[in-house]
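Complex 342.
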Amino acid sequence: MDSAMSVLILAHVESDGSLARPALEALTAGAGLAKSLGVPLSVGLVGADPAAAAAIAGGCGATRVVAVTGAAFTQPRYATDAAAAEALCRAAGAQLVVAAGTSRWMRVLAGVAQRIGGPIDTHVTRIVAEGGVVSVARWYYRQRIEGTTSRSERPWMLVVDPGTHEACEAAPAAVTVETLDVNVPDVRTAVTGVRAPAAGEQTIRPDASLLLVAGAGWTKKQPDGETHVPEAAALILGCIRATQASLGGSKSLVDLSGEGQAVLPFMTHLNQIGQTGSSPRHRKGLATCCHGEEPHVVGWRFITERRAINLNPNCGWAQGKTDVLYVADAFQVMRKVNDLLR
Ligand SMILES: Cc1cc2nc3c(=O)[nH]c(=O)nc-3n(C[C@H](O)[C@H](O)[C@H](O)COP(=O)(O)OP(=O)(O)OC[C@H]3O[C@@H](n4cnc5c(N)ncnc54)[C@H](O)[C@@H]3O)c2cc1C
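Predicted structure with flavin-adenine dinucleotide bound:
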């Protein structure tokens, strides 16, 4: 093992001085790596006021905290984010650099790795150090195959997928913050404001503990020979709003709007789970009126506890793809569930 080995964690500080959950997860991953290797841990912070975040880093065992502050660096923008990350990496001189795979870091870190002359691996779900050898795991082919990679080149940048690690809960500990003097690069992008999507049924809520998936069956003719789309919408939204669950959909359901069929107006392709959709990491998932075909279920790879409601005892979920299959009418079940939630 390289005796000069050390680990650096890069994190953005939020405008209120806190660290967002993905950054806290990166702290867990990086601190665990430094501990397994028995090497020093540094934390590099970018943000207006790094004091509170630095104390959390100290609680995680960081012996060195370096920061880039200043108004220009608090705004998300390639030129300034890349300059800040490069300066932090150079100042820390670490061989292993860990960061959260947020959209902000993902946009710049490949470029930063190129500037500091090292490789980068993204979508890392696990970092293991055994006998001084570091390897990382990530999933390939839409979560069907897990591969592990080890590299000898340094510095090596490891970008960790949010939702794969516990958030660091270390008690704050005092640590000195070294503020770096970084020249603001030529900036052509002005950040004029932030427009965030309303957190509601139109987005997947990564922090929710439950994922409720709606399938195309909600819009199909029911045993009485009629469709009941308005009631389906009310049942799904009733459950989502009562539980603050995240709303997912099958491809067939979210495609319906493009095909001129009866639709649930709040479902869009942003909700799609599966091979050509997303692979969220909620703790529990409940599939309703969804057949459970493989291109859909592959998006459930990281859902820990799975349940499904389907009229058909031979649906895809019955082929070992769910922990519990309720062979039942989802209209009846969700009516009862919503009554109980009220
Ligand atoms: C290359 C490729 C990529 C794909 N990518 C994706 C993807 O990313 N995501 C995805 O979802 N699909 C994907 N698909 C499509 C996938 O194969 C399925 O066609 C799709 O998931 C089916 O959607 P569904 O289960 O909602 O609809 P359906 O297959 O129509 O199933 C509806 C289900 O609802 C049940 N049902 C009806 N009424 C009730 C009721 N009252 N109570 C309970 N159950 C009821 C029925 O029994 C039926 O099982 C992909 C396909 C291909 C070829």
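DSSP finds nine helices and 15 strands in the chain.
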